[in-house]
Amino acid sequence: MARTLAALADWLDRRWRLAVLLFWIGAAAVLLWQKWAAIHWLALGDTDDNIRFVQVRDWLGGQGWYDLRQYRLNPPQGFNIHWSRLVDLPIAGLVLLARPLLGTLDAWRFAVAVAPLLPMLVAMLALALVVRRLIAPLAYPVALVLLCCAGSAMLMWSPLRIDHHGWQLALLMVTLAGLSDPRPVRAGVLVALSSSLSLAIGLEMLPYIVFAGAAIALRWAWEAEAALRMRAYGLALAGSTGAAFLAFASTDNWAPRCDALTPVWLVTVVLAALLLAGLSLVPARGRVTRLLLVCAAGLVALLAYRLLFPQCWGHRLENIPPEAERLWLSHVREARPITAHPRDVALPAAALPAIGLACGLALLWSAGRRRLLGPWLPGLAFGLFAFALTFWQFRTIASAQMLAVPVVAWACWTLILRLGDRPLWVRGVAGAAIVALLSGGLMTPLEAWLPGKARPRAGKARPDPVRRANRRCPTIPALRPIGRLPKGVVFTFVDAGPRLIALTHHSAVAGPYHRNAGAILDVEHAMRGTPEQAHAIMLAHRADYLLVCPNMSESTIYRSEAPGGFYAKLAGGWTPAWLIPIALPPGNPWRIWRLRP
To answer: Transmembrane ranges (predicted)?
Structure first.
């Protein structure tokens, strides 16, 4: 047995990339099995996934590479989508690869199932690199298991989750791998490339990108020997950001907007990167001198941003009207802090980052005594920063969970080593218990029994009407009768627009994309205002149909905040004379009307 274990350990060390690939195949198989029915029905659950699906389909159908407008939202001018084509590439490649063998529909099923799994492989390889460098060559399987316990992160890599968040998470882990790389040039280039690609995808990771640049600059301030790393980082970041802008910035993103890789961030990032590269050539001897130079470079970049792009200073980068923020954006759950979410959501999600924080404190005490803390500092600071961001916006919870994995893996590995030469079965059971405990997996069952929460009653619970509507309305069977109606412009909920245009030939008036606040406000005003106001807005958009799904989440906002408004009256059974009801099959959750000419 000892010889077999030694041979296995040797194989896991020498062939670690193959081991990660095999682990990824196993994890992917489990995720595909869990989502098999949803894949069959193309159940793209998120609005962004549906728009990504439509964007790639339109591109393959002939829409221009730099034209990312969605012309079936708010026609004829279309919706200005602030994304890039970078994330479209693997989806389109999978469709083109599978279409000759499977046909068009199954090729799309294949693409939306497999595409989200690709960044998961990138993240797993980068995580294994980090753990092998910082903990031990054989500790990476523990980290991979812990990563699978990071529920919010794994959700971003689940089949059908074709939006860009999965790739941004993977690039964040690549950034951490670069920060832990002992080779200075390779480290700087890797951090720069992952940062520029993340910027090309979107600005969600901008705080982490700034943090990574600061980590490289502060390392040079602490030790002059890190000049080569900072020089490679600065030159690579300037070059790759410029290349990413030229290759992926849409026509709309050539305007000086604040919310994507536009000239605003191209100039700011390239300037900051070149300043760091220039500083690496300065023969500054003292740490204080180098720190002052870094601070001066940061102030120059910040001042340039302030003077050149005042429209982006002191405002949210989305730069939407206050009314749109109040009526619409404030209700987007992922934009709220973690403290604003229900306890049964917040506590299980925060468990792994919180455990990571505790393990980080233990690591600081342990590694600080042995003077081995240096390589860990960027990762620990990254994890703490990510956890702190969840108190600003809940959307950062996936990053916080993922970045907590290395330090929790260190704690698990340290405890497993302390099991010594105990029998194999004892070490196996104890090791599994350690991983289960430190992964935070016990938080969900424990949370249900914390004081102040109602205990589940025996018997079959009555289904939640909101959850039922959210589940049924976006399905293919529910939308199929609507798709058989003559093609037209459909006035419907903001969150229903993307799914409608993904599954039918109709156009919609709005979707949840901040650059198009005018159309979003039109829907908000129509649903909340008087019937006469709603009629005028629909006529202005040349709408042919009005479509609603009673009890869908968005509808509950209109009923609660505008109980006397148009939608509340409609939901109560009243129908104005200018709407003609259209019969749908029995049991269909939608209600639809044609507007009188």
So the answer is: 21-43, 107-131, 138-157, 199-220, 232-251, 263-284, 291-309, 345-365, 372-392, 398-417, 424-443
Give the C-alpha separation, 587 to 589, whole Å.
Answer: 6
What is the phi/psi pair of residue 528, to 5°?
-95, -20
Structure tokens at 142: 């523990």
Question: Which of 319, 343, 365 delimits the end of a domain?
Answer: 319
Backbone angles phi, psi at 563, to 5 degrees: -65, -20
pLDDT digits (tens, 9 = 90+) for 391-424: 888 889 999 999 999 999 999 999 988 887 777 7
Closest CA to 503 of 72, 88, 17, 5: 72
Q: What are the tens digits of pLDDT across the range 519-570?
A: 999 999 999 999 999 999 999 999 999 999 999 999 999 999 999 999 999 9
Q: Tens digit of pLDDT for each residue in 567-597?
A: 999 999 999 999 999 999 999 999 999 999 8
Residue 403 and residue 153: Cα distance in Å, rounded?
10
The backbone region for 586, taken as left when phi is positive above 0, alpha when psi lies in -120 to 50, beta otherwise, is beta
Residue 490, strand partner residues: 508, 545
Confidence of residue 455 (pLDDT cuts 50, 70, 90): very low
CA distance 160 to 39: 7
| Bond from prior residue into 137 cis (ω within 30 degrees of 0) | no
How many structural domains compose the chain? Answer: 2
Out of 266, 289, 319, pick the residue that ends a domain: 319
* Residue 238 located in a structural domain: yes
- In terms of residue numbers, what domain contains 214? 181-319
Q: Which helix (H) or strand (E) holds 508?
A: strand 507-508
